[in-house]
Automatic annotation (TrEMBL):
It comes from the Eukaryota. Residues 1-79 are annotated as: Disordered. Keywords: Activator, Coiled coil, Nucleus, Transcription, Transcription regulation. It is found in: Nucleus. Component of the Mediator complex. GO terms for molecular function: transcription coregulator activity. The lineage of its organism: Eukaryota, Fungi, Dikarya, Ascomycota, Pezizomycotina. Component of the Mediator complex, a coactivator involved in the regulated transcription of nearly all RNA polymerase II-dependent genes. Mediator functions as a bridge to convey information from gene-specific regulatory proteins to the basal RNA polymerase II transcription machinery. Mediator is recruited to promoters by direct interactions with regulatory proteins and serves as a scaffold for the assembly of a functional preinitiation complex with RNA polymerase II and the general transcription factors. It holds the Pfam family Med9. This is Mediator of RNA polymerase II transcription subunit 9.
């Protein structure tokens, strides 16, 4: 039988990613810090986009009122200085949500030194893998004992 032992293995079992090994311990997530509430990917960019809201708030504050300012200013109308704190609440809440989203990212507590060490380990691994590829690309020598030749 020349076929593979598990020809119908699921795609996850046939993954082409190499094992990380001891050379890159930072790539393996620690079991204690992995939580079910950690996001799988990055938050949407709108989470961090406060400039349009801030621009709108400042524009409402700077633009003079064409009519007398109402006691309860609308979302797009002119804004008196005493209402700035109330109008800025939405921006403040958006900043808090963005801060929570950043803090929920995986490995956010890693230091620059940890990341530099991992980069050095990965660069050393790249050098080793390139050397292995060069060795695989070299032509093989002829065998001296004659066992490799075919006789006919």
């Amino acid at each position: 039988m020349s076929g593979a032992a598990t020809p119908h293995a699921p795609a996850s079992a046939r993954a082409s990613l190499p094992p990380t090994g001891a050379a890159t311990p930072a790539l393996q997530p620690p079991a204690a810090s992995a939580s079910a509430s950690a996001p799988q990917g990055l938050p949407p960019p709108t989470t961090f986009d406060i400039l349009p809201d801030l621009h709108n708030l400042l524009k409402r504050l700077i633009d003079p009122a064409p009519t007398p300012a109402p006691t309860q200013p609308g979302a797009d109308g002119p804004l008196d200085i005493q209402h700035v704190a109330t109008a800025a609440t939405d921006i403040r809440l958006k900043l808090q949500r963005a801060r929570r989203a950043v803090m929920a990212l995986p490995e956010i507590d890693r230091t620059c030194e940890d990341q530099e060490e991992e980069i050095e380990d990965l660069e050393a691994r790249i050098v080793r893998l390139k050397a292995s590829l060069r060795e695989l690309g070299k032509p093989t020598g002829t065998a001296d004992d004659g066992d490799q030749r075919m006789t006919g």
